């Protein structure tokens, strides 16, 4: 079942390559919606029980003990669902796409398979294969459908994240060699952590994995590839890049780094705490200074992913309160989902602006609320969700992260958590500033060009925000699924 | 036979010519091709290509049959073990598409049959080179692999080809003499030329003499491998010779060279002699760095590919450096060799098919010929080591070998180099997506098929690596 979920988009991509040009977008959207239905069915059937469902383990490269091992648990399912939701939204958003639509659809369907594969992989090598392919896919998306200095941005993106992935590969090989017997299987590595006897090697391996995943996340100071890539990518590409692909980094931390290297994680939790805090504050401050709307959203991603890293760092303090640390992990996972939904919506809305005006400059808009009321309402909801207003998904995530971080009882974590709260203040300020400058006031020079959202655009953005509201109002559906996983992770890190 | 002392319990001693069946198939096809070529009219020499291809196919079949039998040593100097099996399969499997590429180009050439026969002789030399476990066999194999290749490089008798052949020959002759010096020295201090004898005796020999001997000995195989410092001929031959010959000389001779380099490290030298891991590791690091840096500014795709093969030679030297230090070294080397050969042949097949040398000439290729464009993308991403292509698996094993062998620095250098290499491979990919400019290349049929098969094989080797590695 899970393999069907993963490879259905790829099969649809082959279909999209041969059907008549006019049917391409329909095949694309249809496949995405079918995949979405499938993942929801998988989630419902899995329920809230702990452990891994839908496991498949096939021998792949037996001589290095790497297999095609996939499965879904409380961590995978929310992210798989997020992936399916976002890709479906992007398909709907792109119904009117005309420039090389066939290649576009094929590439996005390919990317969907790759992203689902990352979140389902239970084998390091398999994880890496999907992880690396996502870079290739996104490179072509930026290169071929981007704007501005797209060739340069695409190359920067590729070189940066590819270097990160190679460092990650070295870390994985370190885990493989450290395990006895040698294996790439995450489940077995979790059961018997490798490198338990040699703290130095474990630290080095964690460093490699941390850098590899950190580039992807991205954490400060490895974030410099992100603003140009996001600014020059097409709207749907930015939405996928920020909404889904940034999660691969933090997902890897929860799935691989914490359970497989628990001792090293405990020892270096303070590094993640500090790096997370730096991301939170730096991302928010730099976002505050942006004139380009898309760049601004890109920098808020640095800020939000900083919260996730912060929470995971706090969860590593073994001396802290276990309940609080569990809350931090749950908050981190919730933040991944919430950020995916909200940032995806924000980037698609930026795409609407660009589609009309060909420009992202905040200063050149104003009074858009008058000409495009629906657009303005959607932008306002997305902005409030992003800054963590109660009733929306961002609040649930932020609250748990802060409660978990500050409540874990150790001084360092409490101080970091308290400082990170400032990040909320900064994001609140910057989003209100955006709303103020774009939506209200006298019409700017480009305002006249901004017409309201079309049906396909609304059809892409509204569901994302609706899910965000749903998570904000009835979070239990999500949290109950994540809770057992958080407990398991904390138990593993605590051993 | 001299040096025929075989330790009991090791591989069986044997003088049965049937053990050399794949080599004999190639030899028979070459001789038959030569004789047939004499009697055929000048304009109708294509049957020679068929004969040569048949010989290669028969060799492949014989290889498959031999691979199922136990390891042995034939004539006390010719190892028949997994390294030889893979060398045979890859050499024969690479020479076959080269014949196809060449046939599309030299049809009707006055010396058409000689072209095929030279390819076969050089391949035969490479086969022997990869299987040799005796320094004297190594030397003769080196000569047999080299001399036909010199002739091939200058086959067109045009100024660039002549210059390439001259450089190739001078370089090969010089490094060959250096290698002979090394052989003499090692024979002197090791009291024998067989690898097993050397391994027993070199431990007691003066370390400095062994080190000098090994360094001199390496000159020959490193020249064949196109590795630093014997790499100067690579770009000139790749650019000056005809593209099919360029595909041949940057692929086939390397295979035998890396196989024998591995043998020297694993079987001829006592552990730790001549500082083997450090020595080869430094050469590997220098080779990959130099190749990748030099490839940056190339606008001629054949020169670009030439420097890329130098860079790839650097990665291939990593498992050679780890020979005998980790179990991963041998599968890493063999898998990477096969992966490299497939990818390199594919990339050169695209060059043959498109008939363009300049990077701008590839603008719009993806529109003009989707199969050719896609094959090129797969091959170039394959060189980078993107999953799920074959080189990816090779690189994983290579990194694993370096880390397990205790050379973390080498793994880091290789990773950094891989990232640097992305830059120039992407430089070639980007124009493919452009708008075709009126005179887009009209690809030749047979080379396009070769490129597509190579690209598919690369993916198949990557996805099905379990099956390939188990075999």
Task: Describe the structure in brief.
The complex is a heterodimer of chains A (495) and B (471). Chain A has 495 residues and is mostly helical.
What does this structure look like?
The complex is a heterodimer of chains A (495) and B (471). Chain A is mostly helical and 495 residues long. Helices cover 75% and strands 3% of the residues of chain A. In chain A, strands 1-2 form a two-stranded antiparallel sheet. The longest helix of chain A is centred in the last third of the chain and has 36 residues, at 322-357. Chain A is globular. The two termini of chain A are 33 Å apart. In chain A, 64% of the residues are buried. The model of chain A has no long low-confidence stretch (mean pLDDT 91). Chain B is mostly helical and 471 residues long. Chain B has helices spanning 21-39, 46-67, 82-106, 112-131, 135-153, 159-190, 195-201, 207-225, 233-240, 243-249, 252-268, 276-295, 301-321, 329-354, 365-368, 370-384, 390-404, 408-432, 445-463, 465-470; strands at 12-14, 72-74, 78-80. Chain B has a 3-stranded mixed beta sheet with strand order 1-2-3. The A-B interface holds A 59-64, 125, 128-129, 132-133, 136, 139, 143-144, 151, 155, 158-159, 162-163, 166-167, 169-170, 173-174, 176-177 and B 328, 331, 381, 384, 386-388, 392-393, 396-397, 399-400, 403-404, 411-412, 415-416, 418-419, 422-423, 426, 430, 433, 465-466, 469-470.
